[in-house]
Amino acid sequence: MFRRPGKNPLEENNSLYQDETPLSSPYKYGNNKVGEATHEPPPRLFDPPHQMGHHRATPMEERNPQEESWRSEDETHLPHHFDGIMQEEEPETTLGEGVTFRGELKFERLLRIDGTFEGDLLSQGKVIVGSKGKVKANLNLREAVIEGEVEGNITVQEKLELRGEASIHGDIQAKFLCVDEGVRLNGQVLISGEAEEVPSPSQSPLLPE
């Protein structure tokens, strides 16, 4: 049998695919068309994280809001009459802890006593008796802050403050007086005035029968 020469059916089918123009894939990586080679690596689902340099937290990042909340409450500072004495001014003269002085002591501005003093204080300034301080003298000053022990009368022209566990054995006369809980006081107290004589039991008026 003789066959009529013609095109191979398989060749006709292949020509259909050869004549079509290459289409671009919607999932292409970059701008490469289908069938073209690419040198870029395909993306991976689980890429390892980029290595970053060591990062040191700034002071703002190290702050703990909860810790600052209670810390700010504990450190709240209230205004006080004696802030100027305790913080702003430095003592002109200081009698240190463990030091004992007996005699007459003169000063002009501010004296702090953390040791033991016995004698006379001559000044129109201010005095601070620390928690370890012991004074055995009459005090006649402009202002005073007592945290320790004083045996003697205290006369202050302006402000007197008794702090902590101060112990006073004597009379007090002052224009303003502030007393903390825990202060021990044995004597008469007069605020903004002259002390009045306390009548003895024999001079007390008799109650009507």
In a few lines, what is going on in this structure?
The protein is α/β, with parallel strands linked by helices and 209 residues long. The protein has helices spanning 9-19, 65-74, 83-88; strands at 93-95, 100-106, 110-113, 116-122, 126-129, 134-136, 139-141, 143-146, 149-151, 154-156, 159-162, 167-169, 172-174, 176-179, 184-186, 189-191.
Account of the 3D structure:
- By secondary structure, this protein is an alpha/beta fold.
- The protein has a domain of 108 residues.
- It has 3 helices and 16 strands.
- The strands form 3 sheets. It has a 6-stranded parallel sheet, with no helix packed on it.
- The radius of gyration is 47 Å and the shape is globular.
- It starts with 8 loop residues before the first helix and ends in an 18-residue tail after the last strand.
- The C terminus is likely disordered.
